[in-house]
Amino acid sequence: MTGRASAPDLLALHAVRLLGMASPERAARRFGLDPVAVSELLLDFEAFGWVQYTEFAGTGGWSLTEAGRRANEKQLADELVSVGARAELVEIHRDFLPMNARFLAVVTRWQVRPLHGEPHAANDHQDHRWDDRVLDDLAICGRRLDAVGVRLTELLDRCDGYGARYLAAIERATRGEAGWVDDMTRDSCHKVWFELHEDLISSLGVTRENEA
C-alpha cells in the first residue's frame, strides 16, 4: 500500500534538496521522472531564484538557494495538509530520533576503534570481529529503517525505496566493500539514512539542530 503521489515540480525540487547537488539526470532518477521535464523545471526554478548551478573541481550541478529551501518546505507543508498526515509524520519523526542516535553511534564505531592510549584511533578494519559486530548492528538499524520507510510510504509515495536501498548497501558492505557503510558519494548506508532523515525534517519544517 502506498500513499499520496506527489506533483512533479515538488519531486524535482525536493530531489535537489535530498541530493545536495545534482545534475538534471541525477535529480530525475531520484524519483523516476523524465530528465527532459526535470531540466525544464530546473530552468524555471532558476528563474524563480530557487536553484543555482555551480561547478567545482570539474563537476557541476544544481543546488537549492535559501529561497529554494523555503519554497520546497512550503510545497511539502501544503502536501501534508492536503493529505492530512502531519500528526502521523510528527509521530514517525519522534520514533525516529532514538533510532538516529543509535545509528550515528554505530557508524562512529565503524570509523573509530579505540586503542590503549588512543581512544579516537581510526578504525583500520583489520579487526574483523569488531567490524562484523558493527555490521550486525548496522543490519539491525536497517530493519528499523525499513519499518519507518513502510510507515512513510503509506502516507506519501515519494518515501518509497529507503529500506531496499539500505539493504542493498549493507549487503555490499558485508561482502567486504567497506565504502558502502559510510561513503557519502555513493548510495551507502549512511547516505540512505541521511536522505530519509532530511526527508523527515524538511517535510516537518524543522532542522537537525532544533528537531528534538
Tell me the series of helices and strands, N- to C-terminal.
HHHEEHHHHHH
Q: State the strand order across the main sheet.
A: 1-2
Fraction of residues in H or I helices: 55-70%
Q: Indicate the low-confidence ranges by residue numbers.
A: none
Question: Ends: how far apart?
Answer: 30 Å
- What does the average pLDDT come to? 95
Envelope shape: globular
Main sheet characteristics: 2 strands, antiparallel
Keywords for this entry:
212 residues, mainly alpha, Arc Repressor Mutant, subunit A, two-stranded antiparallel sheet, 9 helices, 6% strand
Structure, explained:
The structure is a single chain. With 212 residues, the chain is mainly alpha-helical. The chain has 2 domains: 8-79, Arc Repressor Mutant, subunit A (Orthogonal Bundle), CATH 1.10.10; 85-204, no CATH class. It has helices at residues 8-19, 24-31, 35-48, 66-83, 86-111, 128-155, 162-174, 179-182, 189-204; strands spanning 51-56, 59-64. Strands 1-2 form a two-stranded antiparallel ribbon. Helix 1 crosses helix 4 (66-83) and helix 5 (86-111) runs antiparallel to helix 6 (128-155). The protein starts with 7 loop residues before the first helix and ends in an 8-residue tail after the last helix.
